[in-house]
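Below is a filled-in request sheet from our internal design queue. Each sheet records the structural input a requester submitted and the sequence that came back. We keep these sheets so that new team members can see what a complete request looks like end to end.

REQUESTER: design group, bay 2
PRIORITY: normal
MODE: inverse folding
CHAIN LENGTH: 253
BACKBONE (tokenized):
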């Protein structure tokens, strides 16, 4: 990013990292007397729109919650529709995203993925690895608790091997062991579908995110809804524990 873009970004206070809980697909379909998978398919169009819009708005990282650790408990048929949709969407969209300089990666527990999905993930990650446009992170089979547990396990292993001393374990080290290690923390969390909860998304990383809850069901989420969220975000004063006066003084300096 050049200096001019940087200035534009400071002025409009665009979040560097936006995380989205894409909720409400099932209800969208049910309201139309359609089966739930139809809602998931319509949700893919919303993904396409929001990825493109975030790129245009100068967002650096977009993390999408596509499938949670807990979603494995859904009826087998819905799980298989969702896995299939993820696979096919990646297959179909990878080329265009690559053309648009998007870098794709996934986070989550891969232990239950099919070989085909694993291969597809490896292939899109590899294809887009050198792109330096929007960083698109797709959370599949992801849970914030899983992420912290896998980080704790790796830290414990390093201590056992003698490459790490317990005194070295601090917030920075833990953050670096999470699946989002190289990414800035989300500045803005958007959850669609009307629920006001985190549902085990990025628990550690959301510590200071601004939380925006929208009643709009994910398949209905348009660029204009994103812009509403972004302008709401731009109006927040992020204090990070300081007083409002301190923050104002810092901004003037
Ligand atoms: C979000 O929509 C998509 C996933 C969780 C995979 P839902 O399927 O949860 O939709 P609702 O909440 O039932 O409407
Ligand atoms: C959160 O939505 C997970 C995703 C959007 C992938 P859910 O619909 O699974 O959340 P809960 O169960 O209602 O909290
Ligand atoms: Mg839901």
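RETURNED SEQUENCE:
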């Amino acid at each position: 990013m050049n200096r001019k873009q940087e200035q534009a970004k400071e002025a409009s206070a665009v979040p560097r990292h936006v995380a989205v809980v894409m909720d409400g697909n099932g209800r969208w379909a049910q309201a139309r007397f359609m089966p739930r998978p139809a809602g998931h398919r319509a949700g893919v169009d919303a993904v396409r729109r929001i990825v493109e819009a975030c790129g245009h708005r100068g967002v650096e990282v977009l993390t999408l919650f596509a499938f949670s650790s807990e979603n494995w408990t859904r009826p087998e048929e819905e799980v298989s529709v969702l896995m299939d949709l993820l696979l096919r969407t990646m297959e179909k969209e990878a080329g265009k995203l690559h053309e648009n300089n998007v870098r794709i990666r996934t986070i989550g527990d891969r232990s239950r993925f099919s070989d085909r999905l694993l291969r597809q993930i490896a292939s899109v990650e590899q294809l887009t690895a050198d792109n330096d446009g929007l960083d698109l992170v797709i959370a599949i089979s992801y849970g914030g608790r899983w992420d912290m547990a896998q980080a704790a396990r790796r830290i414990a292993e390093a201590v056992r091997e003698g490459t790490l001393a317990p005194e070295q374990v601090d917030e920075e080290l833990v953050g670096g062991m999470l699946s989002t290690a190289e990414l800035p923390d989300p500045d803005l969390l958007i959850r669609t579908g009307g629920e006001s909860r985190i549902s085990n998304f990025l628990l550690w990383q959301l510590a200071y995110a601004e939380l925006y809850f929208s009643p709009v069901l994910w398949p209905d989420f348009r660029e204009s809804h994103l812009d509403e969220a972004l302008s709401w975000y731009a109006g927040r004063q992020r204090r990070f524990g300081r007083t409002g006066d301190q923050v104002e003084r810092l901004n003037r300096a």
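SHEET NOTES:
- The chain has nine helices and six strands.
- The first strand starts at residue 17 and ends at 21.
FILED BY: M.R.
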